[in-house]
Amino acid sequence: MRSSNSTALKAALIVLSYSVSVSAFWRMPCKGRTGVARIDPLVSPGEIAEHAHAVHGGSGFSSTSKTADLLASKCTSCEVTQDKSAYWHPALYFKSADGKFTLVEQVGGMLAYYLLHANTEGDTKIAAFPKDFEMISGDTNLRNFSYPVPDVDQSSWPVTPPYNDQAFLRQAAVGFNCLHYDVLPPEGTLKRHTLPDKKFLDENCKSGIRFELMFPSCWNGKDVTSKDKKSHMAFPETVMDGKCPPGFPKRLPSLLYEVIWNTAAFIGKEGEFVISNGDAVGTGFHGDFIMGWDVDFLQQAVDTCTNDSGRIEDCKIFTLQAEDKQNQCKFEVPAEIAKEDTKGPMDSLPGNVAIKGPGDAPKGAASGTPIAGGDAKTTSAAGAAPSANNNDKPAANSPSIAGAVFAAKGSDSPAAAANTPPAANSPPPASTPPNPAPTPAPSAPPAGSNVQSIYSTEYRTQGNIVNEIVWIATEITVTQTQTRPTGQKHKHKRHMHKAHARSFQY
């Protein structure tokens, strides 16, 4: 009896048309992750933050980061070396039946879209983010979506209460895209505003889940920040596009974060997914941004990088770096939390954050321990296993596939990717009492099964149609009874199949 694996690559052809116009944009891949830690310079400056964040961008990230600190970074985890901005968001964990928490693999780092939506009247120039500009999108304490599901037609939002209110737009800026590359059609960007439960994910999201977060792009034109890191900004009429509200005359680049989590690695395992801020509903997902570009350079990019392909390669002023360089970039974790386990399995979320919902969570706070104190204690659960390296890099790279809210375009060159299981579990320190058995790593597929994962994508533009071809790797495990000579090796076959592609009209 022998088992053999063959990997078949096929392309999923998804033919869809979208009417929303995008004049120009670029996608900023940040394939490296500079770290996962309880640091948040916007909410908890100078202190240990309440919950853990996955961080991308410049290595100068710290609990007190400003633009100057980021510009002094020795490296960046993004593909464009001139971008040393700080992009961060809560991490996703799996809570198993034994109560243990494990960090879910983040596939391919993150993708930051710079959408160039200009005002159609008044000041039509898109301004670069100014020095020391910072903002937050999302509400970490929110635990419910307060509006009808699904969303009403977007064209009616500007004239229909309550959809023409900033309160709705803030909630509509959060999305959870169920990825199923083998089933058509795909979901649209920002169409689902709550995190599906484990059963739904297991049955429908065979390729994982993509977290999506839109940032406001309408600026009051004077303040680089505000007390809540939000009120100096506002959303346009349809979250991504449309008119800006009164008092916000200036248009900045429209930022969209996309992060893919390998929830498929836990299919069939009892438990639930929870965001690091204690949110199992999803509505408390949020993101932070601090400007880390040279202002004049970013303005030049906004003014001249107007190719509608979205490819950073088409912007000749960008200097690009290889993925291994992106993955090598890490920020320095403060000594006070350098040994805090953020990977697991562990007894609680980092910071001992409780799971709250469906009612809104009480307003959180930092641990109150100054990072500069030198003798600070973390608030993680006793007995949590310290990680040998909390600044771990993603184990795999997967291109992000934008959905139906805007016309997504992408790179012409495929990027290799695979959905791999989370890192092996680390044992608890010997000095701690015995813990329940840790959550096992995802098991191998049964004999005769097929396992699909995204392998790469390529994009081909024809006029105003952008075709996205998603190549899928299907690993087929076959068990056969066969007599073979001693020493003969198993044979592995790889097949290439081109089936279908995805088209976007703009």
From TrEMBL:
Ranges of Basic residues composition bias in the record: 487-506
Domain DUF1996: 40-293
Keywords for the protein's UniProt record, in alphabetical order: Signal
Flavoprotein recorded as keyword: no
Pfam families on file: DUF1996 (PF09362)
Coiled coil residues, start to end: none
Comp. bias intervals (Low complexity): 372-392, 412-423
Leader sequence residues: 1-24
Biased composition (Pro residues): 424-445
Region (Disordered): 340-396, 412-450, 482-506
The keyword Signal appears for this protein: yes
Protein name: DUF1996 domain-containing protein
Organism name: Glarea lozoyensis (strain ATCC 20868 / MF5171)
